[in-house]
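Q: Predict the assembly, please.
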Amino acid sequence: MYRYDEFDHAFVAARVSQFRDQVERRLSGEISEDAFKPLRLMNGVYLQLHAYMLRVAVPYGTLNARQMRKLAHIARTYDRGYGHFTTRQNIQYNWPKLSDMPAILEELAEVEMHAIQTSGNCIRNVTADHFAGAAADEVADPRPYAEILRQWSSVHPEFSFLPRKFKIAVTASERDRAAIQVHDIGLQLKKDEEGRLGFAVWIGGGQGRTPMLAKKINDFLPEADLLSYVTAIMRVYNLHGRRDNKYKARIKILVHETGVDELTREIEAEWAHLKDGELKLPDADIAAINAYFAPPELADRAEGWGEIAAWKKSDPGFADWVGRNVAPHRHPDYGMVTISLKPIGGIPGDASAEQMDAVARLAEEFGHDEIRVTHEQNLVLPHVALADLEPLYRALLAEGLATANAGLITDIIACPGLDYCALANARSIPVAQDISNRFGDPARQAEIGDLKIKISGCINACGHHHVGHIGILGVEKKGAELYQITLGGSGDENASIGEIIGRGFEPDRITDAIETVVDTYLENRTSIEETFLECYRRLGAAPFKAALYGGAAEAA
Amino acid sequence: MTVIWTKNGIVENDPWSGDDSADRPKLLDLSQFLEHARDNEVLGVRLAPSDDVRQLEPHLDRIAMIAVSFPAFSDGRGFSQATLLRQRLGYTGEMRAVGQVLIDQVPHMLRSGFDSFEVEHGPTIDRLRQNRIPGIDQHYQPAPLPADRQGGYSWRRAAVTG
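A: Predicted assembly structure:
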């Protein structure tokens, strides 16, 4: 993985002291909360319902054990002993004191981490496929490009006061695990006919109150042109994106109102001036950043094949876990292990300091010192020998981290909701917990199969409900919480925005409604092979509406 | 109180500020300027955030000052306008940030090519007087303000010191 050099260390140290100065000026009253707000936001500090919240960047979701231990230490020392992994592959602390923030940032800097641009109207943490560098189906590791973008976008003088936040995601396989079509810029690393690397460039995807799928504006951008092209997009957006209404300020609205053809022309015209300028990436620089991401040396461990078969036979729990949470690695003797942060009835994405320490230890022991955070709020050990799966499973089990539900109905994404968030209209966490409890039986989950439930506590859609196979949106109606259901959303290479199915449900009825939807699927599917999403796409909303509303569905 | 600040300190008797009088050079908005651009007079232009700076291209030799407005510190269009003026159009004259100019934006403005600042905010004026500007010397991207290539990669720069 990437390691800081002297330049990076000096930069982050300067950034911490800059923020220390800003916090001191705020605490002394020299700057108003209004003027402080964009400054703290650009360092990941939010003011939430009960406390300040700090969001720490995990660039493209990659961590080593030492960094994970530091995250545990921060949870223990400055917070209440836990942290919350987010849909941007970051971690949030919900209870730190403003006066402790500079000290926390200093601690993070010790392990080459920071909170820069995890919030604010700037280019946010660049995300990537959580299986990058290990997946069998990728053309190359997408993370070096995410790292180049991370560096280039850090404290960018031109692009720090954009109309609105800006999110970039990079993937490197046809099977999109990074949800690039719901990002402001989505990049798919690919090869042309001569085998040269470049990107398909998508812009204008996003969720929020106006969900839109991205449009492809360039089918093959040579890798050397990455920064000049992204600069052209950013400049056109910065100059022309709407600033009169924050709900219409994302680039998706500019794409929609200008038209993708016209906007592409503007971007290309701007790029023509930049293309052969100082932003062109030299091959040597791309190679140097790539070298940091060289895969670990994976020795052949063919003995795992026989062992794993025997272990599965003797322990059905282990067999379930391997079946759900271990995906094939590029090396046939290895697997990519998802560590579920969705225990039945638990809070999606939360991990205690002890759990973080345990993951760090296990990553060192079995995982070549690599950990990933997924946008689905789980952790991944991307390089584990099949021969090590059994002891890893035992150790995870002891920490409450061996829930065998990756991709199943209880692997729920949920935003923090009204339990923490100042923007929320409704709670998300208790709904996730209740659904998780209802469907917690392993046999029942297995019977239902692949099903992604995503829950947002308000229209800003941090819980990605628009791309949930089943999405749940909490709204407030006449002072009470109400939950709308959307069906048929998906954030993968066949992305779609879910459709609102009808009027909303009260908190004590939403889990029943979800059960009705699931039962309708089970009754209508052609076989166990047909997933919920396939079934919904075949049948449309009608049978689900009929089951929920008795045929007379009204709009909420 | 409004002051004008440049790298050389507070500017006394700024020719662009003060009461309207016949012998003071004129600061025109873009449309007025384009009307008068054929006059043989050296003028100043005050750009609004939505103005297309490329319209100034044929007239740069008659412009003595370009004021770029920041109606709110959160409105960052002026950073792109400044970058285009310096890098695309090659404008080398005075470029002044006006409007809501706050100390924490000044480092970005300097890097974007501003060399003159009209400041109202008291704490910002104090910091500028003391020359305490909260910038970071390591940059991860080229910008209009000249900087040294440093840090190993083509996109990195370091502030020119001294």
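Chain B has one domain: 3-135. The beta strands of chain B are 3-6, 9-11, 27-29, 43-47, 63-70, 94-99, 116-119, 138-139, 148-149, 157-158.
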